[in-house]
């Protein structure tokens, strides 16, 4: 595969640095969905935006903010990485529907309705009971549709996800997860959910986070690409992409923050456990941003043609962002 | 005077309503600098933006947000009022320089460095001692220059204002005040300050708030226009405009908020006093947005020609916004 394949990663939360941005260029990455926050409230979310403003100033030769999907092509032309933002939780909007448009204006293109736990909007995939989309959640879905903020159900539970798809007038995405049929995990998705996502016009970004893979860190590239092939059958070639969930260079304290936020005094191990509390060992064929070519190669060996590989590696994400982040016709905000 | 004179008001904080927006259209107002906040912190400032988002949705036939100066001409063409935002204090940015760019992105085009009291940036016009621009203030001036946010010194004191002008690479404005030579008041400005503002490329917006006028509510239109003529001599015809300080329909509680914020337990009466604590009686020739034509007429009778009147009524403000709110060349934010 040539390096010129448009490459968009549907989720990362790395310990951002010049070295990582350089690796992104080396790996031919054109744009990345960067997680802005996990549990940060409104004010704290602005701190994160502020940190990114400084990165954009300092590293302007390497990275560029994506204010609209077409900026990704400009980033590519100038040999830089476009950064677009998403929140893994609805904490940035607190209890205030007006913050949806405000966050969108600041560049938040994607928001998850929940992160593992029950939120004010919906239920997370670790809760025992899923009562579906809340009253506030229904209003927020409508507002996200209006302003063009993509609804991401990666960490949400089954019923809430299906209801969100039902309620939303626009596509619903799962930026980073895998099919539960490939590997049973609370974070992976049922065929019913995946079919509904595809029918909504949404996308699944395949995760290379070992907890989401069969055989964990020992999952082979061939197994991974087999999963992609099976999912292409299930969802259609236009509704799949990459969402690595790469958390490069993050200390364990960040993992603890993701899992525990401010909500528990007891330690929550998320997808790990007490004996296996830290970051999982990385895959041999994908440990940093220089390895996207391995995935493209693997897909080629699995029998995908160039057009299909281009869709999976980036074109589908570009279409999703182009269509999904445009404000609704006539929307004033 | 015909109604077609471009009319921009350099400051209002009215009790916004459909009736007021309709009066603006009736009065031929094309754009207004609307005060967003007085003492509100960052999070509270977002509440105010949220309220305006709703107004823009509900009253989209009458008002439209000004995201860049050229939107004012679009507003005029569609017979609507363009609203551009300013903060009367630096409270929205708290102690965080990154919030300058964030607030600018949200549409804050103008910020005062102080409101009567000492702030983290500079000294207000009611303090006994003015030690000038602070360390943080110097950084914020540079950042406001960078992102294109106009520095407004309306409520600042003499030394701080002169230092801000010295430090700023871009024009500094006084959106709403009058010359102290016309009427001695803590809020009115010395000839030295006014000359420096003009030399910086900035503008003075003449206030019709009775506390800023000779003879208060009894100031005649002829006296007001005489003041304009004298200031045109002092500052030049390109550096003066209107900044009414109209606070139409506001209850006394809002006046108390402006004056007292959260900073005092004793009552502060601002420009009033215990015996005269409320809103001043309005002028006979300017009490609401339908009366801008009176000012234009008065200027005509005072001997200004049409070109000069157009500059004062709106063209100077439009130029100021066009030049002053553009990000600096190469600025990334």
TrEMBL record, chains A, B:
SUPFAM superfamilies documented for this protein: Metallo-dependent hydrolases
MF terms (GO), sorted A to Z: metallodipeptidase activity
GO biological process, one term: proteolysis
Signal peptide: none
Name this polypeptide is given: Membrane dipeptidase
Species this protein is from: Marinobacter panjinensis
